[in-house]
Amino acid sequence: MPVLEFQIPSSIIYGDDTIGRLPEIATPNGEKVVLVAEKKATEMGITNKVKRTIEGYAYGVIVYEVPTRANTKDLFEGVNIAKNSRADVIIGVGGENVLSVAKAIAQFSTQELVQEEYKSHKRFGVKKVRYIEVPYLQTVSWGIMPVTYIIDETDNIKKPYIDKDSRAQAVIIDPGLTEEVTTEDVIFSAMEGLSYAFDAYISKKASPLSDAFSLKAIEFLSINLKRLALEPANIKIKGNLSMGTLLASLAIYTSALGTTAACAMGLDAVCNFAQPLGSTLILPHVMEFNLTAAANKFIQIGLALGEKVADITVIEAAIKSIESIRRMMIDLKIPSRLSEHNINQGLLDQVSKVAAQYDFLTYLGRPAGRNELNEILEAAM
């Protein structure tokens, strides 16, 4: 078993109306706040709701709006805003790209030297800008991770930003914020969480702890996605999916991303194909690629997906697991081929080149270099 190092310095606060706890967490002493908000969140009224919650307690609130595909340009503009306003707290409200940028804004804004009197002598230190994460849909909680992936404006590729000390002070997951989010966005974000839970489960970095998170995430997400296909207007199901993606986040935190994430990031960079959708379409093909290398693990995956895998062979159980994902995609009306989303097959070599560069691929149970990644992508066409 690999060495397991497990510590989550972030507080995770989940539940209805937990957004109401923002003042006690973010602004207990009248701090200055920069609210980094996705434009879609503003359009749905979520940004204004968050702002109203804290503005009576904060010294001041500056709203910095960024697009869904926020990149390094937005990051450094945000750093300038945070420094010029002498912000004490950054609050990120949005999906995964925006939250990654918001987290990095807090990280790069922390450089002010402060002087304190300490036991009759002077002590110098760095004033830390705190970061609070508020996802408005069912997305991976990058705030708890030591690494964040941000789109580089020069080449459109997501690059890792690593700092073990720059994590969210708190991640507030309020299912009520998802009420205005489209069912389509909810589905793809939840499927992305399921895909990464699979990556984490078959990783060489996996442990009994990460396995527990991974399998529970797969179970929770699959059950509620199947229910959502039948009851798309059911708000409670959206809340359950938020818990599922939180479990997937903890699975990634205690294990690693894998082939699905790498291919999805490659599609995002080369084809501007949203990462949640890319990971959804690639998942069955990544499962097939790992069918023999991780066959024993597919028994537990099949059980988590609600399949009956008793009295059948390991390979048959693995095939049933893959079929279960494909049936779910059909029920959710997700076109399952990249070609159905107008992806140019001629770009797949570039996609695999980008996908092959990610360090987390070193933890794959079945190694996948550029050629293998290209084969997976070709199969998904």
Structural notes for this entry:
With 381 residues, this protein is an alpha/beta fold. The protein has 2 domains: 11-176, 3-Layer(aba) Sandwich (Rossmann fold); 182-380, Dehydroquinate synthase-like - alpha domain (Dehydroquinate synthase-like, alpha domain, Up-down Bundle). Helix content is 48%, strand content 15%. The chain is built from 14 helices and 10 strands. The model has no long low-confidence stretch (mean pLDDT 89).
CATH-level-2 architecture of the largest domain:
Up-down Bundle
Order of strands across the widest beta sheet?
1-10-7-4-2-3
Helix-residue proportion:
40-55%
Number of strands: 10
Biggest sheet descriptor: 6 strands, parallel
Share in β-strands = 15-25%
CATH superfamily of the largest domain: Dehydroquinate synthase-like - alpha domain
| Termini Cα gap | 37 Å
Global Rg:
21 Å
How many structural domains does the protein architecture include?
A: 2
Q: Would you list the SSEs in sequence order as H and E?
A: EHEHHEHEHEEEEEEHHHHHHHHH
CATH class of the largest domain: Mainly Alpha
Helix count, DSSP H or I runs of 4 or more residues:
14
Shape: globular
The class by helix and strand makeup works out as alpha/beta
Look at the structure and give the mean pLDDT: 89
- Unreliable residue stretches: none
